[in-house]
Amino acid sequence: MNEFKEIRPTTFNEYIGQEDLKRNLKIAIEAALRRREPLEHSLFYGPPGLGKTTLAAVIANEMGVNIIVTAAPAISQKKDLAALLTSIEENGSVIFIDEIHRLPKAVEEMLYAAMEDFTLHIMIGEGAGARPISIRLPMFTLIGATTRAGKVSPPLRDRFGMIFRLDYYKTGDLIKIIRRTANIINVEVTKDGAKLIAERAKGTPRIANKLLKRVRDFAQIHSNNRINGEIALRAFRNLGIDELGLSKEDREYLIMLIKKFEGGPVGIDSISTALNEEKDTVEDVIEPYLIRIGLIKRTKKGRVATGNSYRYLGLTKTPQRKLFDE
Ligand SMILES: Nc1ncnc2c1ncn2[C@@H]1O[C@H](COP(=O)(O)OP(=O)(O)OP(=O)(O)O)[C@@H](O)[C@H]1O
Ligand SMILES: [Mg+2]
After folding, report:
1. Whether pTM exceeds 0.85
2. Which of 54, 100, 176 best tests ligand 1's pocket when mutated (most atoms within 8 Å of CB)?
3. Which of 41, 192, 215, 279 would staple 235 via disulfide (CB 3.0–4.6 Å)?
4. Which of 228, 231, 236 is nearest to 189 (CA)?
5. Which ligand lies nearest to the CA atom of residue 9 in the structure?
6. Distance between CA 72 and CA 111 in Å, rounded?
7. Does residue 204 line the site of ligand 1, with CB under 6 A?
8. Does residue 203's CB lie within 6 angstroms of at least one atom of ligand 1?
9. How far apart are the CA of 45 and the centre of ligand 1, in A?
């Protein structure tokens, strides 16, 4: 049994939450199908793990077409893009490019014509004998995904007919996702158990599913494969995940910001050095949720710990700092 495959929703019905986005997409898909045209190129942005890749696969499935899944780091040269686009066999196929903000400029420019008129302009031969040729491509739908809408260049952004933001999920939706996954992986979960896991999943389906699996390990050993509130709490205590869903790494971030940098403002370079983490990981994975729940702020001068952050750690601001702030 391939658990991973089964856990991923394949239809809009299984894809829980994101109701506004789904409503708009369904209309666009229905209209495209009636016109017998491919769906317009679409860009999805939002924090990791919210279901961008899953949604692209759902769209292809609902359109009844193939999907080719790739990511920008695999398309570092024009020839990679040419190979990708000439591998499209079926009119209307979906090409999914993850981390699309990372495409090199030359590749991006080649992509423009492909998006606009399904044509590939390439040079063949070398030196004096080189000449441009154009290759007609099947019609396709490009779906781009990014954690950073701001990093997608304006000319590329403009070529997407639809742009959607994925939001963090509400607890109620995460509970549904957890129950659905629990069903698939064959573990019983009580209402309390599902709610506790949902509340600590940082609004993120991928985390909800991950936590569910970790809690299941505990349930298997301690409670006959049944997840209730008590087992969930016990697992979270062991995993170091607190009631806000924050992990040891999150707490280290906050402690560093407050103790080492006096609450900021401090730049991303200093933060990533202090934590010994990649800048992208800090900006895309750690910070978005801390910002979302109001523990830190991104300002022009750098990151700043909020009062909530001090309270969360059970600290109070130092007197000097207080004078400064007020
Ligand atoms: N709306 C949803 N309903 C049910 N399950 C979901 C939903 N969205 C995501 N999931 C589950 O969460 C997991 C993560 O989703 P996915 O890989 O699509 O995230 P992503 O947004 O593409 O993340 P990344 O930006 O890191 O690529 C999937 O395996 C899927 O099972
Ligand atoms: Mg993805």
Report:
1. yes
2. 54
3. 215
4. 228
5. 1
6. 12
7. no
8. no
9. 13
Ligand 1 in contact with 228 (CB < 6 A)? no
* End-to-end Cα, the chain, rounded Å: 60
Residue 205 Cα to ligand 2 midpoint, Å, equals: 12
Which residue's CA is minimally distant from atom 8 of ligand 1? 51
Cα–ligand 2 centroid distance for 120 (angstroms): 27
Of ligand 1's atoms, which has the minimum distance to the CA of residue 56? 18
- Tokens representing 165 are 């933001």
CA distance 132 to 276: 47
CATH of region 3-165, choose from 3.30.360.10, 1.10.1040.10, 1.10.3720.10, 3.40.50.300: 3.40.50.300
Q: Where are the alpha helices (DSSP H) in the chain?
A: 3-7, 19-35, 52-63, 78-86, 105-117, 154-158, 171-184, 191-199, 205-222, 229-239, 248-255, 268-275, 279-281, 287-292, 307-312, 319-325
Domain 248-325 in this protein, CATH class: mainly alpha
Contact status, residue 81 vs residue 70, Cβ threshold 8 Å: no
What are the tokens at 238?
């062991």
pLDDT of the chain, 326 residues: tens digit per residue: 555 558 999 999 999 999 999 999 999 999 999 999 999 999 999 999 999 999 999 999 999 999 999 999 999 999 999 999 999 999 999 999 999 999 999 999 999 999 999 999 988 888 888 999 999 999 999 999 999 989 999 999 999 999 999 999 999 999 999 999 999 999 999 999 999 999 999 999 999 999 999 999 999 999 889 999 999 999 999 999 999 999 999 999 999 999 999 998 999 999 999 999 999 999 999 999 999 999 999 999 999 999 999 999 998 765 444 444 44
Cα 125 from chain centroid (whole Å): 40
Domain ranges (residues) in the chain: 3-165, 171-239, 248-325
What does the alpha-carbon distance between residue 188 and residue 175 come to, in Å, rounded to a whole number? 13
